[in-house]
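Hey, quick one: can you model this chain's 3D structure?
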Amino acid sequence: MTEILYRQYVGESDLPHIMALVQSELSEPYVIYTYRYFLHQWPQLSFLAIPAGSSEPIGVIVCKQSMHKHASNRGYIAMLSVSKSWRKRGVASTLVKRSVEVMRRHGVDEVVLETEYDNAPALSLYESLGFIREKRLYRFYLNGKDAFRLVLAIPPSELDRDLPHYMKLSPTDTIFSYPVAPDDDEVSYR
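Sure thing. Here's the predicted structure for all 190 residues.
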């Protein structure tokens, strides 16, 4: 079996690969500015999967992390895509686990995402990782399909429990960021 290497997003040179993977595998069309919105503000939350000896990514995850309604530190999985020929090898679950772990280290309380209501493989993947269906979103996608919003509650780690809130990492620590309105995570970036 071919070894798969995982690495974080490193810059604009990754963008064409990410766009090609997402456009070939997901039903939602995204413009380049949507990718840049996520990748420029939260590069540490995006990972690529690349087979050893290759330069072509076969999987990608794009995420963000921000305060939700001034009350909770929320992670968001915006895009997850794995080439069809590389599925069922643990690539998607590894990408999700890596992103969620980085979010957890930055104090996330929960991670949310949306997926088409009839995407059984995606629902199975996320539910196997502990996500639960929060609600059904009717006609959520541009193609008219409904979605399920899934949520993963992140319990505080042993190390975080005794820290006062002002000592915990915020979603923007150790990264560069552009100003974002507090309720930006309520806007759909499709």
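One thing worth noting: The longest helix spans residues 91-105.
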